[in-house]
Every structure is written in C-alpha cells, then in structure tokens.
C-alpha cells in the first residue's frame, strides 16, 4: 500500500479536455485543431525554471536562512572528524550547494569536505561542474556527481550492499518529483551519521502554491507531472517515522505580473513552469486558462504591490536530526 496516499496527485480522470481542443474559427469555414497539451521535457523545464528564479525571491529567501540558521547547523556537524561527508539530493545547478559548502568551510576551517551530488538532469550537472571549475576557494572539497534520480541512487546503494553515511544531507525543493515520498525520506534519513542532519526545503502551507493545489486543483492541467506536496505533508511523514525535527518558515514571493500580459514570452514561460506544461497558454482550452488566471488572483494565492501581482512562494526549511 502506498504509505502517503494523500500526496499522490489527482489525474482528473473525469475531465474531458478533448471537447475544447477542436475549435471552430469565427467564419466557420473549416475546423482547426489546437496543438495538444504535453508535459515539459527536461530541457524545457530548465528554461521555465530559470524564468521563475529570475522573477522570484526564492534564492534570496534561502540566503536569509543560510545567514540566520545555517552557521549553527554546520557548526554542530562532524563531531571533530577530519572529513565531513555531504550529500545533495536533487542539487540542480549547484548554486545553493556551494553556498552551504562555504558556510561549512567557515565553521570547520581546514577540514576536508567530501561532497556527493545526486542530480538526474545532464544540463544541471554540466552547469554545476562549470560553477565548481570557476571557484577558487574549494581546494579542500571533493566532488562526486551521480547523474541519477534519487530512487535510482537508492536502488544502486541497496544493490551494492554498502551504505555510506553522511554528516549532512539536503533535499532542496525536489520532493515534488519523487514517487514514494515516505520511503525516500526514510532511506536518506538512514544514510545519516550519528549527530548528522537532514535538511528538507519545501513549499510552506502558507504559500500560494498550497492554496492553488488544494483549493484550485481543478484549474490545473493533467500534464503537470509533479506531486502536490507542501510542508505539512512532509512533517506528517516525519511524525510517522518518529524522528526529531524543527521547521523554520521564511517568506518568499514570485512576481507573476507578466502572466497576465497577452503574448508576453516571459509570462508564457512562467505559466509553463506553474503548470508543468509546454506552451500552456497556446495549447490549453480557453476555459482552463481563464480559471487558472482567476485562481492566481485570489488573495490566498497572490497579493498586489506597487501595481505588480506577487504570488506567495513561502518556504519551510525542515531540519531533521539523525
């Protein structure tokens, strides 16, 4: 039985999109077909994600957490060892990883850091490696990349029968793409050394995403392949696992004003990211586009500031003890 059925996404089996795909032009001369909706490819996701980062305070929000909480977390690691083992799960292009590595370096001068990375997207791996090549201050850090999904890595470890332990494991904004959230967290928690820490960063239940996914789920297309999971879903898993954790909430916003400007290319990419769908505005039925635009404007999703529409992107930083 699936241990976390509440986190599986609803595929809307009752919704019939075909009815609106075949459309008659105004002069009724001939029928034409709107291209069918499809999910983003890995490459398209990278481009859509970049548009999100460029217009959100997500990384600034993480920087605030790094400044306020991370030095204490890093200082507690290692237990006097000469090498500290770090594992990044779904590390993307590595910007956040390297910021945390530098905080770890500052907390433990001269200590060797063995940093392993699990990241399935080849473009992200290449960008991460380039970032490392350009950094002059990582001499005491070793890097090993595993171009795998988290479940592929887990399978590989179990097949080898060797279970390397880590002092710090982080899973930043990646559990939306995991099939079995409960067992994924359970496995990576089992990879912690004594006195190790697991950091999970996930969307807060106070975010616009939480409202969109729970209250306005009918406004989203079935092409969105992610799981709709927020902080409370993760803490429910942690409670069932019986582990000790703390949650730190940090505010973040995403300026989605361009989503409401007809034909705006940036707005188009933002809507693709939001829905996980290629060219959502060009391929979605008009009624679905209208419903989603209306949902995005609801006060529990967005606020207005200086004439801009700011979608709530609040984050929960969950620190789990070994």
TrEMBL record:
GO biological process: methylation
This protein's UniProt keywords: Methyltransferase, S-adenosyl-L-methionine, Transferase
GO MF annotations, alphabetized: N-methyltransferase activity
Residue ranges that the Swiss-Prot or TrEMBL entry lists as coiled coil: none
A Pfam short name: Methyltransf_23
Keyword Phosphoprotein (UniProt): no
The keyword DNA damage is assigned to this record: no
Residues binding substrate, per UniProt: 58, 313
Assembly information from the UniProt record: Monomer.
Annotated protein name in UniProt: Histamine N-methyltransferase A
Organism the protein comes from: Columba livia (Rock dove)
